[in-house]
Amino acid sequence: MRKFLNLTRRNCMVFLRDRSAVFFSLLSMLIVLMLMGIFLGSMNVESVTDMLVKYGGIRDAALDLENAEHLVQYWTLAGLMVVNAVTVTLSVIGIMVDDGNENRLESFYSAPVSKGLLAVSYVAAAVIIGTVFCMLTLTVSLVYIRADGGAVLPFAALAQIVLYTLLNTGIFAVIMYLAALFIKSSSAWSGVATVVGTLVGFVGAIYLPMGALPEGVAKVLKYIPVLHGTSLMRKLCCEDALAATFEGLPGEVVSGYREYMGIDIMMGTRNVGSRFQLLFLGICGMIALTAVILTARRKNISDR
């Protein structure tokens, strides 16, 4: 256990001391915030207020605008949590690629440390750092929303968000570790990070809502864990804001908005629930873990 803790601590410290790695791990989140601040946020708010005008009858326009802004803020927060779960774990797993590139892995292998323990320490460091960064994002966002007049999420929702964050970071850390097993150089891993950082906003239906995507693209995204992880977060973050914003509107309008914004995911004609999404994420994690074990065994055999 002491060896595992020392290795995990070492991996965490190596990442945190590299300021450029920390910055670029958060770059996708900063891009989302910039786009939301420039035009995407106002577009999403305007679409909500237009819907309220069309279907809500006589309403308090100022209150509707305020509620719509808080709804979009929580919707954005849910996306940011998953973006960080992907990009931060990817950056931390990059330490293993750097260690291999600098021949430090050979030094570790010559020490009385098993390869399995070393692998788990990389994944554990990614989960720890990813979770901490997500919690910092959550805290800062909640303080901002509260200062802007928004309601605070209930304790039960916050507790579930923490659990879902651990689930997301754990699954994506294993997936990133699997990808790293096939990467030999730091430059190649940087290329992977660039591609993933660019695509994660689209895959999670953050840059564009699900309803604005082409039908074929939307169908593909429904089989990718990032979208379901984001959907789970949105259900928790947006539930109270949805109730306040769409109070008095027909249920069909609310359900249509939830589907359009990727809060609810339709697979075929069925609205999949949270249990299915948790099961789907768990299966993806198990598949990735099995692939990691099989790939590691094959490498061990070829190295003999």
The SSE string, one letter per element, is HHHHHHHHHHHEEH
- Determine the mean pLDDT: 88
Number of helices: 12
Helical content stands at over 70%
Main sheet characteristics? 2 strands, antiparallel
Low-confidence stretches: none
Strand content: under 5%
How would you classify the helix and strand content by structural class? mainly alpha
Biggest sheet, strands in spatial order?
1-2
The counted number of beta strands is: 2
Q: Please give the alpha-carbon distance between the first and last residues.
A: 27 Å
Gross morphology? elongated
**Rg calc:** 21 Å
Overview of this protein structure:
- The longest helix is centred in the N-terminal third of the chain and has 41 residues.
- α2 crosses α4.
- With 304 residues, this protein is mainly alpha-helical.
- The mean pLDDT is 88.
- The relative contact order is 0.13.
- The chain has a two-stranded antiparallel ribbon with strand order 1-2.
- It is 81% helix and 2% strand.
